[in-house]
Amino acid sequence: METKIKLLGHPVHPMLVVFPLGLLSTAVIFDILYLASGNDDLAIVAFWAIAAGVVGGLLAALFGLWDWLGIPRGTRARRVGLLHGGGNVVVTALFAISWILRLDDPTYLPNSAVPLILGVLGAALALFTAWLGGELVYRLRVGVDEVAGLNATSSLSGGIIDVERPT
Predict the structure, then answer these.
(1) Largest CA-CA distance found in the chain, in angstroms, rounded
(2) CA–CA separation, 9 and 143 (whole Å)
(3) What are phi and psi of 160, to 5 degrees?
(4) Residues 77, 1: Cα–Cα separation, whole Å
(5) How many independent structural domains does the chain possess?
(6) What is the secondary structure of the chain as a DSSP string?
(7) Phi, psi of 117 (to 5 degrees)
């Protein structure tokens, strides 16, 4: 089943997910380094990485939702996609709450470890939802071009932007 929105012949959703995943996981690493070192600059970097990661996550979610709407009802792919997308909504919410708790002071320690705990929980859940995304693509072939193969033509042959309405 092909994806519904493509840019230069490739699905947009997987292009976008690398940004929030990278930013949010990096924020957790910077938070752990902040906890270990007490360097306030690390907490501030984590604060802004979370802000950008949440925005990127919401953008990726829009394209993921569009693709999910095109998956036929009653299929395992539709159920896995719902769990993948719903889980990522929870991931984004955990990080958004962590970010909101830092608004008054991005250097939240020693007052509260809750922002760090939410980030760690969000990152752990993101590992599972990323696995579900892999299940969708590599096991259930969601988003895979119908003519994909070892000798397929270039993905650039279809134009710059290709949008198909969900069925």
Answers:
(1) 58
(2) 11
(3) -80, -55
(4) 10
(5) 1
(6) -B-SEEETTEEHHHHHHHHHHHHHHHHHHHHHHHHHH--HHHHHHHHHHHHHHHHHHHHHHHHHHHHHHTSPTTSHHHHHHHHHHHHHHHHHHHHHHHHHHTSS-S--TTT-SHHHHHHHHHHHHHHHHHHHHHIIIIIT-TB--TT-STTPPPGGGG-SEEE----
(7) -60, -45
User: Residue 54 belongs to what domain range?
Assistant: 5-163
In whole angstroms, give the CA distance from residue 75 to residue 98.
Answer: 35
The pTM assigned to this predicted structure is 0.90
**Residue 77, both tokens:** 């792919």
* pLDDT tens profile 83-141: 999 999 999 999 999 999 999 999 998 889 999 999 999 999 999 999 999 999 999 99
140: CB partners within 8 A, 6+ apart: 76, 77, 80
